Amino acid sequence: MQQATKTPPAATQTNGHDGFGKTNIREEVVLDVKDLRTYFTTRWGTVKAVDGVSYFVRKGETLGVVGESGSGKSVTALSIMRLIPSPPGHIVGGEVLLNGRDILQLPEKDMTKVRGGEIAMILQDPMTALNPVFTIENQVGEAIAIHQNLKGKALWEKVVDALKKVRIPAPEQRAKDYPHQLSGGMRQRVVGAIGISSNPGVIIADEPTTSLDVTIQAAYLRLLKQIQAEEGVAIIFITHDFGIVAKMCDRVAVMYAGRIVETGDVRSIFNTPRHPYTQALIESVPKLEEKTGRLRQIEGQPPLLYNLPVGCPYAPRCTRVTDRCREEYPPTEIDAVKTHSYNCWNPVPVKK
């Protein structure tokens, strides 16, 4: 049985950072998010949408960010891209190191070169991500023109090449179409083509398969993995579906109420989840081999982010809650092999 140990003072991180203490764990780290905090000012109070989030992703790696709606997954991604609407939102603290450079400190003029050129985002709804009055050529070509300073025939060839990379048939013809002339799966591929068009080092995929049926979803996931293998791009895959995590990801960060509550490689998260919330999410996924009259669910609702409880925010819904959980937020615990961290006073025991 693996025993959890307290993080030593020199390695202490805020709210579940997965700096495990290995010297080689951060080799080829492309994006390193440290203690990121994004708050929204509302008439009800300050909404702590992202409250000390820390994670990293390496070159060629896929990091899954999992959690219920409202847990802060998308706001974290928008904060990394510096696309938070202000007001009411403000990034109030933390660092986002892209290849060692803190992009939160860049002037907006420089940041426009980073977006799309070094880090790109695939949004979850292609019908709102794509402009209905512009052709596919215009929208894919815009990013290429900005970041690669191309025009004319050279720009057209790059657009067609980007559409070919995402396996769109007859790309020369489709480039002249408008979004409404394409199917949902094709539109999602176009959004992917925009994301990869300037060869970024990091792609943030924000639930890109939500609007797709199961068959098209599987094809799109295979496509992302093929692109990653060809380009060596790092992917942050935001989802609420642990089934997709099992197919796509190398490591997983589980979010709840604006914080990372557990991080680890996919195998350890599935086989030995330590946080009760992670265990509940995994158990809520239907299993074909099991016959059941009722699907499992997590009782209750996530807390209001402008009125968070004093202790662990998951305590009101937790089956393993103790008095200490309600009074104090748990520190980061790291397992014996230093590949799995979690924040819980009363973790799920490891099965022998």
Alpha-beta content class: alpha/beta
Q: How far from one another are the termini?
A: 6 Å
Profile the largest sheet.
9 strands, mixed
Report the CATH topology name: Rossmann fold
Provide the residue-averaged pLDDT.
Answer: 85
**CATH 2nd-level architecture:** 3-Layer(aba) Sandwich
Number of alpha- plus pi-helical segments: 12
Shape: globular
Q: Give the strand order, joined by hyphens, for the main sheet.
A: 1-12-13-11-10-4-9-8-7
Topology as H/E string?
EEEEHEEHEHHHHHEHEHEEHHHEE
Beta-strand content: 15-25%
* The CATH H-level homologous superfamily: P-loop containing nucleotide triphosphate hydrolases
The total tally of domains equals 1
Task: Report the uncertain regions.
Answer: 1-25
Number of strands: 13
CATH class: Alpha Beta
Rg result: 21 Å
Helix content: 25-40%
Outline the secondary-structure elements.
Layout: E1 5-6, E2 29-42, E3 45-58, E4 62-66, H1 73-80, E5 89-98, E6 101-102, H2 108-114, E7 119-122, H3 126-129, H4 136-148, H5 152-165, H6 171-174, H7 184-196, E8 202-206, H8 214-231, E9 234-239, H9 242-248, E10 251-256, E11 259-265, H10 266-271, H11 276-283, H12 323-327, E12 333-334, E13 340-342
Parallel strand pairs: 4-9, 4-10, 7-8, 8-9
Antiparallel strand pairs: 1-12, 2-3, 2-5, 5-6, 10-11, 11-13, 12-13
Helix pairs in contact: 4-5, 4-7, 5-7
